[in-house]
Amino acid sequence: MLLYCWKCGVRLAEGETVCPLCQTRLPVPDGAVETKKTYSDLYPAEAHHAQYLALGLVTAVLAAAALSTLLLCLKLYGAAAWSGYVMLGCALAWIILILPRWFRRPSPTLFLAVDFIAAGGFLLYVCLKTGGHWFLSFAFPITGMLCILSLCASILLRKLRRGRLFVVAGLFLALGGCCMLAELFAHITFHTRMFLWSLYGAAFFGAIGALLLIAAIVPALRDYLERKFFI
């Protein structure tokens, strides 16, 4: 017997009485007889050979680019002058774009943390290589803020079944606050003027966060947005 969710219209599989999208329990009519399945419950194994081949080719291209720039710098300058930026940039791109795809079920929270650590290491190298003193007072706190914010949002969106719209609203409001803090750290580090651009970012993200917060409070609007964007 085929059942459809009365709330979001999703078609349920045979024998299911709870919507997999919105977790709404559906009443089963009396006398409903469960039909015998004519298909297997086992899904066919996915072919990952083509994906792994493409990942291997991209990895080889990045490694070749990094190695060629290193050899060029060694030949011209006798040291890894500017090739360090290229090598670490290729490594950063590989960690962010390629590394998670080697796993069939990568953990978003784990790889988000790895990405921010790699980005922080790249910024630290640039700061030390250029003789700057802006990492601890500017790059590190901003990277740390974005890392904590991303990890909290990832964990909450994966664990919570209800109230995800509140999480998204809080994320936008927090991004508005991060804009203000980023300009504050720039003012402390580089002695720039305050409130040149952060107010625009805070107003933009704050307006979106406030609208989503209002939508999360209104039941009809909340249900519409959750169905529309699968939140």
Description:
This protein has helices at 49-77, 83-98, 108-129, 135-159, 164-190, 198-217, 219-229, and strands at 3-4, 11-12. The chain is mostly helical. It has a two-stranded antiparallel sheet. β1 (3-4) and β2 form a beta hairpin. The longest helix has 29 residues, at 49-77. The chain is flat and about 80 Å long. The two termini are 28 Å apart. The model has no long low-confidence stretch (mean pLDDT 88).
Can you give keywords for this protein?
231 residues, mainly alpha, 2 strands
Average pLDDT score:
88
Strand tally is: 2
Overall form: flat
**H/E series:** EEHHHHHHH
Helix content: 55-70%
**Total count of helical runs of at least 4 residues:** 7
Strand order in the sheet with the most strands? 1-2
Q: Provide the β-strand percentage band.
A: under 5%
Spans of at least 5 consecutive residues with low confidence: none
List strands and helices in order, with pairings:
Blueprint: E1 3-4, E2 11-12, H1 49-77, H2 83-98, H3 108-129, H4 135-159, H5 164-190, H6 198-217, H7 219-229
Antiparallel strand pairs: 1-2
Helix pairs in contact: 1-2, 2-3, 3-4, 4-5, 5-6
